[in-house]
Structures are given as structure tokens and as C-alpha cells.
């Protein structure tokens, strides 16, 4: 039996995907039955690492998704359009879809899965989160019987590389970003990575699977790493923490979900604290399992293609055993119907690290304590770290407090005469 693939995109991931499909020795034997029938790109003149017989490569992407001989469309274009429209067209034509496109799935997952369930086709997306790390299928299947409490991930390699370098060398954000761009670890326009949008797309997908409810991407509270500087990294280190960009989804007391992305002080002994450079890791906490962590290369052509091709052979395996899909396997499809209600940021309970620059006058720490206390913000530690010019630098770490109360206390503290400025506020895990 042979399965025809239409590959949309022959860039970093598309090329590695083709390389696996064209070099099957020593891999799963199902790969021998998979044929790349067409490859869609934007330019036929670019030099390519893989060569195909004439007629396979085309710029007519609609022709691929409308080709009746194609069984599985593999979307590796990136971006929202034409990726979304081509996925929907493929589904309408009864084709299964494999995609690595977190941006499309995080925003249009509802539309895409509703269409896929109607025409009874699979849309698999193992590569969309964590690159080569298997996390989507394990969450759906191996961990499916657990009551998931929390999913916490380092899911963006670029920001993890930048924070690791800043931490190791005491370097400033801008310098490390420039270096990361030179090494190809950060895009020329790094906004989606460093402002946390890419991580927000990924946690939207993970939360949907872990908690069985769709997530409105635009409701996710998202802060990036632009404000992190060498001073905070050094103070965090002295207090026993490292700073990581975490994407967190957890059930909350009020029957809603907390889904957020922000830089976080992570205790050095926490399993995520030692995830460095471009690596990704996802910690899943559930009942009765407890904690399980997935770790590995979160990006790169080969790693990501490994996840793409695993989806392809999953579909091929189903087609081989049962022919045309009359009913979708509930362990591989997505049938969530309703949207989760997300906890408003001001109601989320978390710990905070906050750094103040103040006049060196008696009673400042007492005033801080009073303002926090009046808003039910209890303080875990207050440390006067040193002096910056004439100003005393004080770092406060709170206990778990409601963010709304914390912000109200800060608004009052800002107006205290002795307070010069509040250079940074970072959440603490
Ligand atoms: P890429 O290197 O930029 O490749 C994109 C490919 O799509 C190119 O072959 C390009 O054609 C083609 N393409 C883009 N827009 C097109 C259009 N409008 N019409 C025709 N062809 C078009 O991207 P990538 O890094 O492989 O990423 C692909 C997907 O994988 C994205 O969704 C990305 O988020 C996801 N992903 C990537 C990584 C990674 O490490 N790179 C990791 C995880 C997930 P030309 O070659 O002719 O320019």
C-alpha cells in the first residue's frame, strides 16, 4: 500500500522531513510506503538540499491540496496565511493534515478541528510544540487518564538561549540578542520569541489538550524577556533562583484555568532550572502520576522533522489497518467543544520579586511592609542588596499573593516619598 504526501514548504523543517522520507533504511518500515508526490514552495529557482524528479516541485499550492491522489497534506509553510486556507481546503477535500504551525493552530484550532471532525480526517501537530520532543501524543494518550493540575514549559529556545547566556556571562539583553541573531538562534525580527507570543501559542495548544477545553489565544496573559537585565539575574542568583521564560497552564480554585507566559524566578533545585541554551522542557503535573518532565531539542530541522514524520506514520498506520477513516480515533483527534474561562490576571495567585530604588532614609522598609500588609500582601523576605549611586537597592520577595492586591500595594508604594523607582517586578515560581 502506498500513501501520497503533499509537502507544503521545503525550508528548514520541510527539507529535513523530505530527507527522512527519502532515506528510510533503519527507520520504521512504514516509511517505505510513503511517497512524496508534490512539494509546494514559493520559488522554483532556489538551490535545494534535496532533489526531486521533474514535476514534483511546484508553486501551485492549491493544486496540491486539491490533488485527488494526495492522502496527507504536510503543512510546513509557517505564518497564518496561506497556511490556514490551505489546511482548510485540504480538510474539505478529505485529506489528513500534519502541521508544525503553532500560530495557525493556536488561533484557528476551533475552525480547523470542527472542519476536520466533520470530514473525519486527522489534523496532527506533534511538531508544533517542543520541536522534536514528543509531548502532544503523550498528553493525549499516555497521560490521558490523569487529572492534570499544571503544565509548565520552557517552550521557546531563543529566549532560553538568551537568558542562559545572560546568566552565564553577566551580559546584557541587547548584546546577547545580537549574538543570538548572528548564530541563527534568533530571527532578524525576534518579536514573536522575545515578547513571549510564540510561547503563548504553544501553551494555548498544550492547555487545550491537557485540560480538554479550547483556549482563546488573545486572552492569554503574556510578558516577554525584554525587561530582564544583568542586575536582576545577579540578584536572583544570590537569592537562589535562575530566571526562565515559563509558559504555565494550571487549574485554579475557581474552576477556571490560569494560562500565562512570563519571565519567572525558578528555584535552583526545581527541575526546570537546569534547562539551558536552546533546549525545551515541559513539566506535567497530574494525579495520580505526580510529576513527569519531557526534555529535548525544541527546534531545528531534524528534530522537528522527527515529530512531523511520526505524525505521518501514525496516520499511515491507521489508513493501512482500516482503510478510509469512518470514525476518528478519539485518542488522536480533537473533539473539544467549549472554551475555557481563563482566570483574570488580577485574581491569579503567585509570588513576586520586586526591586526598589529608594532614598537611604530610616523607616523605608517599614513603609513598604505597611503598604503591602494593608493589601494582604505578605512578605517572605526583604533584602537591602546594596547601593546604586546615592540610592539603596531593596529586593522584596512576597509569599503567594493575589496579583490584583499586589498591584494595588505597588501603586501606593510608588507614591511614597522615599521611593525613587521600581526597576523590575518578576514573578516567582
Ligand atoms: P522556513 O525555513 O521559512 O520554510 C518555509 C517554506 O515554506 C519554504 O520552503 C518556503 O518556500 C515555503 N513558503 C512559505 N510561504 C509560502 C507561500 N506563500 N507559498 C509557497 N511557499 C511558501 O520555515 P521552517 O523553519 O521550516 O518552519 C516551518 C514550520 O515549522 C513553521 O510553522 C514553524 O513555526 C514550524 N517549526 C519550525 C521549527 C524550526 O526549528 N525551524 C521548529 C518547530 C516548528 P521557499 O523555499 O521557496 O522560500
Give me a quick take on this structure.
With 429 residues, this protein is α/β, with parallel strands linked by helices. Helix content is 35%, strand content 27%. It folds into 3 domains: 3-131 and 301-322, Rossmann fold (3-Layer(aba) Sandwich); 136-296, Dihydrodipicolinate Reductase, domain 2 (2-Layer Sandwich); 346-428, ACT domain (Alpha-Beta Plaits, 2-Layer Sandwich).
Please tell me about this protein's structure.
- This protein has 3 domains: 3-131 and 301-322, 3-Layer(aba) Sandwich (Rossmann fold), CATH 3.40.50; 136-296, Dihydrodipicolinate Reductase, domain 2, CATH 3.30.360; 346-428, ACT domain (Alpha-Beta Plaits, 2-Layer Sandwich), CATH 3.30.70.260.
- It has helices spanning 12-22, 61-66, 83-92, 102-119, 136-142, 157-169, 173-183, 191-194, 197-211, 230-239, 301-322, 364-374, 403-414, and strands at 3-8, 34-40, 57-58, 72-75, 96-99, 123-124, 147-154, 221-222, 241-251, 257-267, 279-287, 290-297, 349-358, 379-388, 391-398, 401-402, 419-428.
- 35% of the residues lie in helices and 27% in strands.
- It has 429 residues and is an alpha/beta fold.
- Strand 14 (379-388) and strand 15 (391-398) form a beta hairpin.
- The protein is elongated, with a radius of gyration of 24 Å.
- Strands 7, 8, 9, 10, 11, 12, 13, 14, 15, 16 and 17 form an 11-stranded mixed sheet that branches. A 6-stranded parallel sheet has the order 3-2-1-4-5-6, sandwiched between helices.
- Helix 3 packs parallel to helix 4 (102-119), helix 6 (157-169) packs across helix 7 and helix 12 runs antiparallel to helix 13 (403-414).
- It contains 13 helices and 17 strands.
- The mean pLDDT is 94.
- NADP nicotinamide-adenine-dinucleotide phosphate binds at residues 9-14, 40-43, 46, 61, 76-78, 82, 100-101, 127, 131, 299-300, 304.
